[in-house]
Amino acid sequence: MKGQSVTSHSSVIIVREDDSGGGCICCSGGLGEHAKKDPSYGHIRTNAEECGRLHREIRERFGEDEVEIIQIEPKDYIYVMPKVLKEIFTRGRPIIPSIKTLMLWESIPAVIVNGRTVSSGRVPTVEEVVKELGLDP
Amino acid sequence: MTIHAMPLVVGALCVMVIFYRYYHGFIAAKVAVLDDSRKTPAYTMYDGQNYYPTNKWVLFGHHFAAITGAGPLIGPVLAAQFGVLPGYLWILIGVVLAGAVQDFIIFFASVRHGGKSLAEIAKSEVSTVTGFVASIAVLFILVIALAGLGLAVVNALAESSWGVFTIGSTVPIAFFMGLYMYRFRKGRIVEATVIGVILLILAVFFGKDVAHSSFAHYFTLSKTNITLFILGYGFIASILPVWLLLCPRDYLSSFMKIGTIAFLAIGIIIVNPELKMPIVTDYIKGGGPIIPGAVFPFVFITIACGAISGFHALVASGTSPKMVSRESDIKSIGFIAMLVEGFIAILALIAATALFPGDYFAINVPDPIFQTLGHQVVNLEHLSHQVGENLAGRTGGAVSLAVGMAQVFTALPGMGHLMDYWYHFAIMFEALFILTTIDTGTRVARFMIQEFGGRFYKPFERVDHLPSAIIASALISVAWGYFVLTGSISTIWPMFGTANQVLAGIALCVGTTYIIRLGRAKYAWVTMVPMAFVMATTLSAAWMNITDNFLPMAQKEGMVHQAYVNIAFTVVMMLCAVIIIIDSIRVWIKTLYFEKGQTPLGDEGTVRD
Hints:
The structure holds two protein chains of two kinds. By secondary structure, chain A is of the alpha+beta class.
């Protein structure tokens, strides 16, 4: 968001699937490290690696006091909704795209920067994220 | 004396808040000495993919979603045979003094070990023997857990065309979702999940029509046939690519869980049902028709998840420690997630004990045995009429929980005439959980068997080697399927509880060892006391299960084989526990007396890899 003060706390929410598998795994312990061996996670793992790359690149440019990065699975999105809602209100985002963002009506992986979806169905380049952040790295 | 739900709910919340504030605060500050100046693995091993710092409440949601499954719902329902109080007290005392402490300390130990798993921590803190035995124990425990949960579903679906249609529909729905989100409209996960949830609700709704149609007989299946179907399901699901069945199912379960549990909590608060079950029943002395044995020690293995669950130690040493951003967050996540699970267990207990005792036992006990108990049914015929199914003799806990939940939901304004829909919705909700656990558990066990087999024949450990995958999956499915086919809830559930509590005992043993090796032996009682209690009750329950249940069973014609298999499994789990206790005590003595004066781990701030 251009014109945003550098001191403002910006947020990047990366929504992507994970290859460690499983909610509701109480009585199985979950796949855990075993999932790393399962080749059928291939596509999910590739996306997760790309998101990991983006996470690292953003962090190389901005400190934690400048940009908060939240990386989550889609099923955990419900716990981030209040934060996204707050971002939408405080930054005066337009209604229709904001509803889509809030409902996560996007292709995964999706990246939400300061309450606005900057990419869905692919992992954006760090430049795209930086541009949306409007901060000087 | 009339008891209502609300005082129990409020009382439980108060106890949990007080213990969290003071006792758990003490453990975090004095025993673990959480230190925010130390970098967590999310920083020290940061890769942005598996290790990355995560917001506390986001990670709480992730951790809570992972630890909560079907266990805290079924156990308390079965333990209701002892009355309201034993289950209530064990859940409450167990969760604050044992379950939450176990989850926290293993989470903490894993963070200090760079996010390593329980077996790896056991190996590095105690010995390779303990690490190996812990892995063996996990495999045996998985088999019994899958059998216990599988049986609950089988008994809920037997002779129920509506239930079979609804639950059966979840499989093609999950397939459709998998293809939708990974092939047709890639990445559209929320869209696919919304469609999936709508289809699930339609499957519940139209299940009634199917049950009253000429197709009903296709969906009316015996216990044996349902067992074979579920066994086949577990076998196939563990071989299929994860995106086709496991992942979409996981989304459905996660969202249904959050919604339904929240609705049940609100429902119980609004309805404030009267609990018809007495405070204690005569079965506390033993001879109970559901769980064979006295309240001590059997209540402690009947309710595992909800009070303390060994499986949580696997989750607490899984993804969560890799993502926690500050050590102080471990306190909120580790303790509170388990306290909430305990609260859910109390809700399940309330739902079950809101039934009249006669109705409860008529549902949970086979009819010939029920006739000998001297209980009178009160509402059963009316309930059966309302839900559109015969409820008598539907053992396993899932049915009585579904009836209890449906009673709460229908007591809400405007819901009075929807008993049959709510009942089948609740059955679908429970089965969805359990089938997800069967998917995941069979797959995990398959990987473990392949890993073990790979020591003898290298290609066997390759998970993409189809013949190996088929053999390993068949082995594990036949193992848990055998118990479902031959056992009853009275034999399997105590074994499941034993297994889960043995794992909890192992986790507490490892936690105690870690505290001692940190140089804080004077505080080791926080895990040693619950460990001693859990191990003592579990081992004595396991022993009594062998002597009072399985050995007499072996005298009965046609049950010899089953009895000795049960005995063998129980003995293996007991041996695992005993080996780990002895090995741990050896390490404690060595650390306290022979390595005295050496720099403890905590002061130096290093953890050996």
